Amino acid sequence: MSHRNDSVQEEWSIHGERIRFCGWPTDTLSIDNGRPHTLILFIPGNPGVIHWYTNFLTRIVQQLGKGFAVRGLSYAGHGVGDDVVGTNDDHSRSFRGRRKNEDLCESMNADGGKDMRVPWTMEGQIHHKIQWIDKILRDWRCEFECEPKLIFITHSIGAYFAQSLLLRRSDILEKTKHIIHLMPFIRFDPPPMKKRLLSYAAYSQNYTIPMMTALTRVLTTALPRNWIDSYLKQMGMDCTKGREIAMDIFMNTKMVKNHLVLGMQELRVIGLPNFTWKI
């Protein structure tokens, strides 16, 4: 699947394509204008859906001008459509027993279903981002026969994914000139009550996730789409396209589950900060 949007500025090519990484169809974004010398690699926050950031990234690269290009992607298992988020069988399968390959990058279990460890774990999402960058670098070398300069821009937990992959891949780190992390982070100095609620939810996910997905299913079934749209607009989401994306995503309960499972692991893995920010 691909789409083009040439309405912002005619000379900038804004291109979206669905590509498979770690066995999962993944929405990607490319913004180009001529031959670039520097690539901006964007990793979003959870829920990791690149479509929300298209206008934001377009404005950035337009202000930087020619010589810069953007590459971004959604998370594995995050987006619109069952081919992206996984089927009901994928979500209920336990994945116990022998696998075709113990490597996380082999994303099929012995029964031929998708490996939910890719979208549901921090480790799986890191492998997913590494495969994406490796493809970008291969394509660049084939087209330009040189190495690009890299700038990482990340949002929220995307910062953790970027730092983790750079620690594992010195060859990517050597090409990296700047790393820019965008707020907010879910664990960034929350109020005491919110800290306790977040920790409780993370360590009680066997109860909280079914409750939250069931609530989402009831709300999206009971409420007309235009009511949900009006509510999102009242909450400050002025962008019509952004509201459409939000409704498409959160009316898919499998996508909601992927978002929640990964978010709960994020809370458990990263934990609470042991410092207080003073401004």
Protein model, in words:
The protein is built from twelve helices and seven strands. Strands 1-2-3-5-4-6-7 form a seven-stranded mixed sheet, with helices on both faces. Residues 1-9, 94-102 and 275-279 have low confidence and may be disordered. It folds into two domains: 2-182, Alpha/Beta hydrolase fold, catalytic domain (Rossmann fold); 192-270, no CATH class. Strand 2 and strand 3 form a beta hairpin. With 279 residues, the chain is α/β, with parallel strands linked by helices. Helix 10 (225-234) crosses helix 11. Helix content is 48%, strand content 17%. It is found in: Lipid droplet. Pfam families: LIDHydrolase. This is Lipid droplet-associated hydrolase.
Topology:
Elements: E1 2-4, E2 13-21, E3 24-32, E4 38-43, H1 54-64, E5 68-73, H2 82-85, H3 88-92, H4 117-120, H5 122-144, E6 149-155, H6 158-168, H7 170-175, E7 176-182, H8 192-203, H9 205-222, H10 225-234, H11 240-250, H12 253-270
Parallel strand pairs: 4-5, 4-6, 6-7
Antiparallel strand pairs: 1-2, 2-3, 3-5
Helix pairs in contact: 5-6, 8-9, 8-12, 9-12, 10-11
